[in-house]
Structures are given as structure tokens and as C-alpha cells.
Amino acid sequence: MRIEIVAVGTELLLGQIADTNSAWLGEQLAAAGVDSHFHQAVGDNHRRIVLALRTALARSDGVIMCGGLGPTQDDITREAIAEVMNVPLVRDPAIEARIEGFFDARGRTMSDNNRRQADVPAGAGVIEQVRGTAPGLICPVGHKVVYAVPGVPHEMAEMFERGILPDLRRRMGEAGEEAVIASRVLRTWGTSESGLAEALQGRIDALDDALDAALTTAAATAGGSGAVNAGGPGAVTIAFLASGIEGIKVRLTARAPTDAQVLAMLDAEEKEVRTALADEFGDIVFGTDDQTMEEAVALVLLDRQLSLGVAESLTGGLMASRLVDVPGASRWFRGGVVAYDSAVKHSVLDVPVGPVVSEAAAGAMATGARRVLGADVGLGITGVAGPDPQEGHPPGTVFVGLALPDNQLITRELHLPGDRPRVRQYSAISALDLLRRALLDQPARTWGG
User: Fold this and answer.
1) Which site among 331, 379, 425, 449 is 20 to 30 Å from 299 CA-CA?
2) Burial 59-98 (b: 16+ CB within 10 A, else e)
3) Is residue 356 located within the same domain as residue 405?
4) Domain containing 261 — which CATH number?
């Protein structure tokens, strides 16, 4: 079943408020196994609302309309739905009495405008309001359906869960379309969106072929009736989402009749994707879903029973700030030294006198952090955030040093894009990723306590 969301309100088009309702509804529909291929936003104009609703009904099995059910003159969702249904509005005495009671209970007088909220398109069902004044609507349009709910988020969410979702599940059950949709996000750092897409092209083609085969089989089984259940085998998709300073996300989405089948499909596809990316880029996947780079670093440090100390120059404490965002960081994070001035690098971290924007300086900072903070691992970073060059290096030049427990010293030169804030943010996560990868390359038994 395909449901389209239509958000009503000129304030949405003007950017005065964000359309969080559509995002929330999209997430809930996906979790319920309902396809939602289109979202619209339309202003408070009768003709345009009617057009948006007719457009939605032409390409979807149902519509959820948010907003425009209030008492004022620009709240015209009811009128637009009635026109599309080709029926009159009928005032419901029970709703009118309930609204009046709502005001009486608060010692207020109800205005005549509020009585408009008791107007219901003839033939429509009502979702009773329990938190405000405007009821929701369930409006049949031929074999399709239009749901209308208030735009107030907590009222909308309550009506969706109590009134819309059960009705949708009933309709899907009658049509044999019950399914579960779930997603899993793999978080990566170190390559471009186009690079990821190229590395996974083979998997994407294989999934497309599997889905085509499943749909062909389902259509043949249905005997040409058109009743094809899209929740069958092969219903997995891969998509990419660039997330700025947090890297590129690879979203896996699966659809199947049961939770267990969806989970199995996601597990299998995650293995395929991880293998394909590892063959091309190494340990580029650092986490899943909402896991951050610092959480991934924490896990590997805990696994190897190691402590970490950092020394920062251009990042000015950003790495330490990210690390202490992880609950329980005191178990593995010793602390940080913000050595922004060169004199501090020399006197506190024993960085040799000379250039401080260099691999040698980054290595000395890492070694100094390990010594000064009494840590098993030291991580140092120096470079040029901009906007001006420094020591002959252009903005975006960054050097990272990593001092490991076996006295191994790793240094890297990076060239990062963006303005000063972005260079600093990219530097912090790039340094943490270098640490993560270096620790993963070492057997846990070598450094375990």
C-alpha cells in the first residue's frame, strides 16, 4: 500500500516552521511496512490544496493530510477534502458538544469559529480528539482513503497511532500486503560518495535483478490479477547519504512479511556490503546506525584494554571534546593537552625546536601525550586550519601522529577541504579514524592487559 503525505500550511513554504510531521510520519509508515514514495507541502489555498490532494490520490492508495483543521478562516482542509469527495460538509452535534465542553472545562467561551471544527465531509469517519479541539478524519474516496489530522505534532502523533495505523493495517491485511520495512545504516569515513557507489555497483545490480525476478514470479503466481506482494525475497535496497563532517552513510533497507525475515535480510546484506567495501578500501566502515567515530574508538580501546591521551594544536580540544561525549570515557581516556602555542609544544610535550607543522612534530606530540598523560596510546595533531598559510603549508594541511604501546610511531600527512571550521572538524574525525584503524590492525592479545 502506498501512502502519500500532504503537509498543509503556508508557514511551511515560507520556512517559518520545519515540517517535522512529515518526517515522523514517514518513519512510522516505513516501520509499519507502508510505502511512501511522495511527500508534498501546500499553502493555505483551497484550489491548491484540492490539486495537491487529487495529485496524491492519482499516484497513491491513500493520503495523510496534516494541518488545516483549526478554527480560523485559513483552515480549509475539510472543505478541500469534501470537494474531492464531491460531498457536502455536515456538522456533527457530538463533536460540537465535545468542543464546547473542552472550553467550558477551562472556564472559557467558545467562539463560533470553533464550531467549524465539527464539520465533517458526508460519509467520513471521525478520529476523536483527546488532546485538543479538532478531530481527525477518515475519508473514503472510491477504493482509496484520505486521512486528515491536526498539524500540532503531539495531536497528530496520537491520532496516527490510535486511529490511522490500525485502519491502515486492516486495509493491508484485507489486501494481503502486510509487511515489515526496516533499515540499517553503515557509517563510513575516508572516501567519497561516488567511490562508495562504484564499489557497491555490483551489489546494487544484483539486488535489482533479484527484485525483478521476485516480482516476475509473484506476478505469474497471481495469475495476472495484479495482486503482487512487494515484500517478498530480494526486496533490499542500498542508498547513500552524505553527512558532512560525519562521513558517508550507506543505508540498507529491507522489506519482508516478518521482523525475523527483515533482520535476516539486513544481516546478510550487511555482510556483503562490508566485504565489498573492505576489499576496495579496508576498514572504512566504522559504525552502524547512530554510532559515532568516538564510540567506535572507545570500543576498540576497551577491547584491547588500552588508555588514550591526546595532544591537539589546530583542533583546539575538539578531539578531547568528542571523546568525552562517550559515556564511561574515564575508563579509557586519560586526558588531553591543547598545545596551541609553539612554546607549549616544546616545553610540555618535548617537541623539538623547529617547524611545528610537520609529521615530525605530530609524532613528537603523540609521544609527548603518551608520556605526560601516562597513557598506553598517544595521539597528536597539528596543521593549518586557515585562512592563512603557515610555515609554507596551505590551509587544510594536517599532520597526525600516533604513538603505540610497542613504541611504534605512525605519522600521516592529510590535505582536507573546507573553511577553517570544517578543516578543524575534518581533522578531528580523521585523526580518530587513523587511531581506530591502527588499533584494528593489531591483534588484541598483543596489547591486552
Assistant:
1) 425
2) ebbbbbbbbbbbbeeebbbbbbbbbbbebebeebeebbeb
3) yes
4) 3.30.70.2860
Say whether pLDDT at 448 is over 50: no
Rounded-to-integer distance, Cα 428 and Cα 239, Å: 26
Quick one: 404 and 261 in the same domain?
no
Residue 443 has a pLDDT of 60
Q: Nearest Cα to 274, choosing from 351, 188, 205?
A: 188
Q: Is residue 153 located within the same domain as residue 16?
A: yes
For residue range 206-223, what is the model confidence (pLDDT) as tens digits? 988 887 777 677 667 655
Cell of 364: 613528537
Q: What is the CATH number of the domain that holds 423?
A: 3.90.950.20
Q: How far apart are CA 248 and CA 199, in angstroms?
A: 13
Dist CA 233 CA 297 (whole Å): 36
Domain span at residue 236? 180-288
Question: Rounded to an integer, what distance in angstroms lies between the CA atom of residue 199 and that of residue 192?
Answer: 11
Tell me the average pLDDT of the chain: 92
| Residues near 390 by beta carbon (within 8 Å), at least 6 away in sequence | 357, 384
